[in-house]
Structure formats: structure tokens, C-alpha cells
Predict the 3D structure of the following.
Amino acid sequence: MRLVRIKLENWRGVESREIHFADGITLIEGPNEIGKTTIVEALLILIRELDSSKKQAVRAVMPVGKDVGSRVEAEIQSGDYHFVYAKTYNKTTATSLDILAPKKEQLTGREAHERVEQILNETVDLALWEGLLAEQGKSTAPAALKDSAGLAHALDEAAGTSASGQEDMDLFDAVRAEYRKYYTLKTGRPQFAALEQEAAQAIADRDAARQALAEVEQNADEQQRVQADVRRRKQALPELEARVKEHEKSWKAVGSLKQELELKASQLDAAAGQLAAADKAAAERKALIESIGRDEALLAKQRKQQEPLQHRADELHRKSESATLVAEDKRKRRNEARKCQETARNDLAYLEDQQKLAGAEQRKRSHRELSGKLKSASKTLHQVKIDAKGLEALRELDRRLELARQKRDLAATKVVVTAERELDVEIDGETLSLDSNDVAERTVAAAMDIRFPGVASLRIAPPHSAAELETEVSEAEADFRQALERYAVASLEEAVTQNEVRRSAQQQLKALKSKLDDLLGDETPEEIDELARSLRERSDAYREQRAAGTDLPENIAEARDLLATAEKALKEAEASVEEAREREAELRTEQAGADNELREAAQSVVAIGATLKERKARLAAAREETSDTDLDARIREGTGKQQALEAGVNDIRERLDALAPDAVETLYTNAAESLERAKKELASAAQKLAVLDDRLAQAQADGRFEALEAAERRSEELERDLDATRRRAAAAERLWHTINTHRDAARQAYVQPLKEAIERLGQIVFGPTFAIEIADDWTLESRFLDGTLLPFDDLSVGAKEQLGILTRLAAAQIVAEQGGVPLIIDDALGFSDPTRLDTMGAAISAAGKHCQIVILTCTPGRFSNVGSATTVQF
């Protein structure tokens, strides 16, 4: 198999790129994140995944922020086939295949995918190809070669046993085919589970047929039992019906007496109601007569008590009017004292406003002074660009530059020119005139030209690492200069000085802000200005509106004394007013009480008179309707009728109790329920009997006995087949394990060509003493070098990676005669020193003469020693 070219469109971050591969070594160089590993990913997805795949790895190749399909196209030669294979994933999916040789074909969709699988399975050992793949970050892992049939065949030929090896492969394939009839190759799980399930199902069918036949026998027994039960229940029905009729006759007699009792009881209730109404009318008439007598006595008493109340109410009215005049005079004096107190308070407020106004004017002057100083400190602070973080960054860049210079000087070559006579010498274009024994010394960090005019010229090129260190110094110097320009300083010392200036300005700014905060408090300068303006306007307005009768106090102390005197006078006046008001209120309360008592007495006389009149009218109306004599006669007649009805009710109750009505009702109800239950149970038994008759009739028609015989024959046949299959499977399993055991032993005989191929390449890298030991699974077990044997796991990461690459190169060389597979190495040898990179380059170049190799790297120059490579740069 050989890769001719690959083309990607809209694949992750790659918009469009096409790469053509050389027959030997193709070296693809480019920085990280440019899409080198994407080439390997796209090739593997193209071969493995259908265009309809929804796997995460496939969805991840769609470019971020674009709703487009991701397309990969590869031109491949494999065996006699030469074809172009393309797929588009995720959006507008498609698959196309153009076979150019040996016969032209064009296929699309799943048919194209399956055709490529057929071609590759026919011509390529895909297991070997994936085993040789050195993916990014996995180059230290050993190559998986054991399961490669192509490598095994190539090793057979290399060992000179290809004929017998082919025969062994035919035998191995035959045994494997026989084993695969019964077991899976990977897990060894049985393949005859369907036969086992079929045999188990046959046994279950046989058991079910036996159970069905047993159910018929059970139904026949149940039919006989139910028939006997139906006959028994039919015979019991006449006796139950006779018992119901007997108890029904007794229950009807009880019902007749209950109806007679209800009629008498209703007549008794009516007579009792009439008697109760007559008694109530007589009681109400008697109570009305007694109430009229009480009202006449109370009315006379109330009229006699009303006269002294009238005299007291008139006296209190005269005293209340006199108290009102006294209170009005004292309120006038209180209002005059209040005006004096208000004037004294306003004078004091005016003098206090004058004092506050003077303080506000002083704060305004102090604020202007501090604001000027604050602006000056802020200007100084803004002029300084350096801060503590920036100073630390400069120091870190200075340390980095110094460290880079030290590393460069340690790695750089020293050139010393000692003059044995007077001479001129040019070093990198600089002309030096040297006397005898003069010395000129230079450090070579990059390529240097030295010329002796008229004599000779020479060029000194330092190691690649020294040039890289010189580049590192240049980058560090550039970063340091940029930082100085960013912070507007000429040197690290000036940066320290400027930082101190910044710190001093910050401290001064902080102190001035604190003073301003103390001066302003919770107020702003505008609020202080507004306060001063308000105080001034209020003071001016007060002087204009103040009465001219009295002079202003001389100072705040005098104003406070005048205010205290006025407040004392006001307090005394208010106390006098309160005393007069309380006396006035007290007299008015007494007057209101006397008026209320007089009014209530008058109202009581009127109410009693109205009630007395209404009761006399009611008594006259009642006597007119029914006289006292007629009412007494109605009471005597009602009493006699009630007693006669009570005697009749008691007689009926005694006759009813003698029949025990509750017992009669219980017996009748129970007999009726028993008859009903017997009828329902008889119907249920008859229905059950009909079901059993139907089941038995169906059982006779469905041939359950014949079904049982057929199920038993099938289960016996399948059990015999399963036993035979298990015996054959056990034989195939034993043969498979036996041939694998001998095959693994045989492999050790022809793995020698792989060992020799690795050692040939390894001696290019490690020297003539290099040798290896290979384990049973064809992985490296140990390395021998300069008389020391080390297990593979104890080697350094760099050595493991180098041996992993060498193993893959050797395997790719061996299978190249049978068509081979391309070896892809992605970002490897990152742990190798310059010497090993040189020798590994030679080994790769030697292997590239026999097989196709694709190398991807993000480090230009790492594979510069691969002499036969074709370079593709991104």
C-alpha cells in the first residue's frame, strides 16, 4: 500500500490543503495547531468510518462556527489497485470511489465503502498498518505486531520457510475456520447458543404439553365434583322457599299492629298540642294582668322623683357659664406670652445661623487650598507609568535576559586569534590590526566569518543549540526593551526611582484625601456652598421681617437668657389656662350629667306610660276573643281527651311487644337472604359446570396427547444434536489451543529476521555493540549496549522512543517485499539529543529506501539529518 496524495477541505481548522507523498520519505513541517496530526486523523476516519457516522470523533472534525461538510480525499495504490477515495462527513454527506487500475470502476455510498474494505482486506495487512502507526504522544509505546499475518508471512519468507509456512497457514486457517464454527475468535464465547436455546425451548414445550394433559385430567375430576354440587343445591331450594313464606306471614301481622299504633300516636300528639295551646294562653293572660299592676305603681314613683333633678340642672348651668368667661381671659394672656417666646426663639436661631455661616465660609476656603494640592499630587502620579507589578516584570525580564546570556556564553564557541607577527584580520566585517603577540577573542553564538586579507578566509558555524540560545538572547533583549518603552524608563535603575516617586505621590494623595474627607464629612463642596447661601438668605429675610419694637440681643448667650425667661412666663400662663379649662370642663361635665339624669327620668315616665297602655289594649283584645270562663272549659276538655288516647296507645304497644317484632323481622330477612344466596350459588355452580364441559370438549378436539408425543420426540432429537455439537466444539477448541501453542513456539523460530532487521538499524543509531531480545508477543524485552543489559521498561524515555521507531522501521522494511504499508511517524523524537537525532536520521533514511515513510513534526530542523526526505512545509 502506498499513499499518493491526500486532500482536506473544512476539516477542523484546515480550510483547504492538498499534500503529495513521495515514494520514500515525506517530511511535513509546521508549527503546532496548523493541522499536521489532522492528516493522520482524516486518513484513519476515511478508511474506518461511514459518511453517516455520528461518533464524537467524526462530529469533532466540523470547523467551529461553520455549517459545512468536512471532506477528505485520498489517492492510494494497494497491490494491483490504484484508486481515489473521498468522503464528506457531518453535512451533505457523500462517499465516492474511482478505481483507476487494474479496471476502471466508479462507486458511491455504502457500496463504495464496502468495495474499499474488500480491496484493503485483500491487499493490505491493516492490523500491521495500525500497529506501526506512531501517533502523536504515543511514540514511546511498543509497536503491536503479534497479530499481523502479513508480517508473519514476510518473516517466513525472510527465514527461508515460505513454502512450509504457507502449508502451515493453510492448516492454521482450516483449524481457525473449524473453531469459528463453534466459538468467537476474540472472546472464545460459544457460537451454538441458538441450538442450546432451541433445545431448551423444546424441553419447555414438552413440559408445557405434559402440563396441558395434566390439566385435562384435573378438569374431569372437577366436573364430577361440580355436578354433584349442582344436584345438592337444587334439592335444597323448596325447603328454603317454604321457610320464607312462613316468616313472611308473621312479619305482615307485626306490620299491621305498627300501622294502628302510628295512627293512635298521631291522634295523641294532636290532642296534646291543643291542650298545650290552651295552657299557654291562660298563663300569658295571667302574666299580662300582673305586668299591668307593676307598671301603674312604677309610673307613679317615677313622676315623684323627677322634680329635684330639674332644680339641680338649672344651678349647674349658671356656674358653667361663669367658668367659661374666666378661662377665655387666661387664654388671651397665654397667647401674648407665646408671642414673646417665639420672638426670643427666632432671635436665637438668627444668631446661631450667623455663627454657622462664618464656619461654612472657613470650610470653603480650606477646601480650595486642599483641592489645589490634590491636583498637583495626581498630576505627578499620572506622569509615572511604572508600578510595583511592572517593576517586578522588568526585574523578571532582566533576570531572564541575564540567564539567556549565561546559557549562550556557556554553550557558545570561543575563537582566539594570537598574532605571531603584525597582521590585519577581519572578524564579521570588523578590521583589526594586531601587533606581534596581540590576542583577539570572540564568542561565536552564530555563524562567524574570519578573513586574513590576501591569505585565507574561514567560516565558523556553532552548533544548532548555540544558535537557538543566541535567538533566545535576542528575544529576551527585545522583550526587555519593549518593557522599558512601555513603562517610559531608560533602565531598570530609573524604573526603581520612578516607582519610588509613584509611591511618594500615592502616600501624599492618600493623606490629602483623608484631610478632605475629614473637612467635608458626609457633605460635598456644593452642599457647603448651598448651606452658606441658605443661611445668608434666611438671615437677611429675618432682619427684614422682624418687628421694630425691640432690639436684637447682643450675643447668643443673651438670646438664650431672654428665651429662657419667655419660656418660663409661657409655661406659667399655660398652667393657669389649664387650671381654668379643667374647672370649666368639670362644671360642664356635672351639668351634662344632671341634664342626662333629668332626660332619662322623663324618657322613663313616657316609656312606662306607653308600655302600660299597650298591655291594657292586649288584655282587652284577648278577653274579647275568649273569655276567662271559656278558656278554663277548653283546658278541662283537652285534659280528658288526652288521657283516653294515652290508654289506647299503651294497649296497642302491649300487644305488639307480645309478638317480638325484632325477632320476627330478623327471621324473615335471614330466610329471604338464604334463599337468594342459594339461587346465586346454584347459578355460579351451573356456569362453572358449563365451562368445564366446554374445556373437556375442546381438549378432546385439540389432540393434546399427540402434541405431547411430538414435543417429547423433538426434545430428544435436539438434545442428541446439542450433545453431538458440544463434543465437536470441544474437539475444535482443543485443536485450536493446541495449534496456537505450537504456532507460538514456531514463531520464535522465524522471528529472527525481525530481530536482525532491528539490530541492523539500531547499530546505525547506538553503535556496533547494540543488540536486543524480543518477547513472545514480538515486543522488545531488553537492550544490550556496551556490555550492559537493561530491561526495556528501565530505559529512558528517549531510548524507548528511539527503539519504538526502529521496530516500526524494521517491520515496514520486512513487509515491503509483499507490497508493504506506509509508516506514519507523528511528532516523534522529542526526547532525543542532537547526536541521536543525527543517527536516527540516518536510520530513517536507510529504511526509506525500501518503504514509504511519512514524518510530521512541529520542530524545524529536528529531522534535518534525514538525507533522502522530501520536505513539505505548512
About this structure: The chain has 18 helices and 19 strands.
